[in-house]
Design brief:
Helices cover 27% and strands 25% of the residues. The chain is an alpha/beta fold.
């Protein structure tokens, strides 16, 4: 395993490690969600950025994804592990479990979806057949296996606009489209990482059954499942960075 890694922390993570160096970074796209921390984790250092801000004040459609990824790149990251919470549509996972999706469908709108926002000679049409970097996905899955953590290999992530949750009819539509998971932050994060030349993969925390699929209110499901999923994700990350 090689490279300079960053973790984008999603919902469900209030703190990540004991000691850190704070980096205040300005980018051509503005300010990232929060100062980026160079965190001591399992004996090494990793860049950590809370996607929704230090006080979790930024809803998913307001996050400056371009600034976040550009700031990590400026600090030397070349690979990003994105933690995010998702609901599950199909039976491939249960709340409290984790997964590493391999495909994504984008239902978001009005977000800055590219770094190419002005005329630029030689701009690239980025290959996006596989939206998540296969080598990084393999590293995460290998860490899960080594840590004896049940982690789903694959699945289709549906990225919705938020911040509201979906209707039951919308979830039915997403399943007809082939989605397994639903979240609000996978896009444009994945494509921006690709445009910036960053390896990128999601480690998804399944915290609820999607609308119309569970036997309890969604927020009750999230509250009861987040800790279990977060614990598994941290086990995977400790193994991942402990083997560097």
């Amino acid at each position: 395993m090689s490279g300079n890694y960053a973790i984008i922390v999603g919902s469900g993570f209030d703190a990540f490690a004991d000691t850190s160096e704070v980096h205040n970074v300005t980018t051509r796209f503005g300010e990232p969600s929060a100062p980026i921390r160079s965190v001591v984790f399992v004996g090494g250092k990793v860049l950590v950025l809370p996607r929704h801000g230090d006080s979790h004040e930024l809803p998913p459609h307001v996050v400056n994804y371009r600034a976040n990824l550009e700031a990590l790149r400026k600090l030397g990251a070349d690979a990003v592990i994105a933690l995010n919470t998702v609901g599950v549509l199909s039976g491939i996972r249960q709340p409290g479990e984790i997964a590493v999706p391999d495909q994504i469908i984008d239902y978001t709108w009005g977000r800055a979806h590219t770094i190419h926002d002005e005329p630029q000679p030689g701009f690239a049409h980025v290959e996006f057949t596989e939206p998540f970097t296969a080598s990084l996905r393999a590293e995460i899955l290998a860490a899960a296996a080594a840590a004896s953590v049940d982690c789903r290999d694959g699945g289709v992530y549906a990225a919705t606009q938020g911040p509201r949750l979906e209707t039951a009819a919308e979830i039915d539509r997403l399943e007809r489209d082939g989605a397994d998971f639903v979240g609000m932050t996978g896009m444009p994060e994945a494509i921006l990482a690709a445009e910036l030349g960053l390896r990128y993969a999601c480690l998804s925390l399944v915290v609820n059954k999607a609308a119309g699929r569970g036997d309890k209110p969604i927020h009750d499901d999230v509250e009861s499942s987040t800790l279990a999923a977060r614990t598994l994700a941290l086990q995977v990350l400790r193994q991942f960075f402990g083997s560097r």
